[in-house]
Structure formats: structure tokens, C-alpha cells
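dumping this here before i forget
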Amino acid sequence: MSAIQTGTSFHIASALEAITDPARPSILGDYAVDGTAMLGVIRIAQDRTHGFWERHDGGDELLVILQGRCTMTLRPAQGPEKAHELGPGDALLIPKGVAHSGKLHTPEARILFITPREGNTEWND
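structure:
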């Protein structure tokens, strides 16, 4: 199973609280990548997000919001756009090849990410 074209978002603490059997994990989605992936953290300032879009043709991207609030808009090649309102403790799984852009509602966001090393495209709208 891969993420649907408009992405999958979830709140990490809520997902952990919903576990009824501590010996069994709660599977929240599948992560697919064609090659290697990068694991990192980033601090994004509000002035860097206006009109910025990116797409990862080498695999899915996972974002975990550590600090700040934002709206991530996903624009699949087919189908409607979908906005995901995210804050600390929320995660977003973005499917391979889906264009996405973020709008910060705080001066800065701090994000943990896992993203493909190859096949990344960035542009300004």
C-alpha cells in the first residue's frame, strides 16, 4: 500500500495513544523510494516558502513537524489539490511525484524529513 495521491497525515502522539496492544505496532503507511534517501532536519523561515514548490520523482517524502505550524498543499498530476494543516507532532507522507508547497503560519518551522536523494525538482510559482 502506498500513500494516496493527496498524501497521508497523522498526529504521532494520537497514533501512539490508539495502540491497544503494546506488543504490536500501528502501521501508519508505507514509504517507497527507488534508491537511497536522506534523513535530516531543516529550519525554514516564513519568507522562504512563498511560491516555492517541489516534487520528488525518486520516491515518497516524509515530513515530521517538530516546531511551528504550516499548511502543506499537495498537487497531484491528476485529481484535486489537498491542504494538510500541520503542527508539532504531526507527520505528512507525500507520495512519489506529487508536487507540494508549504505556507508557514509561524515565523519558522523545524522539520525532520526523509526524502529521496535523487529525482528532486524545485521551482517558484
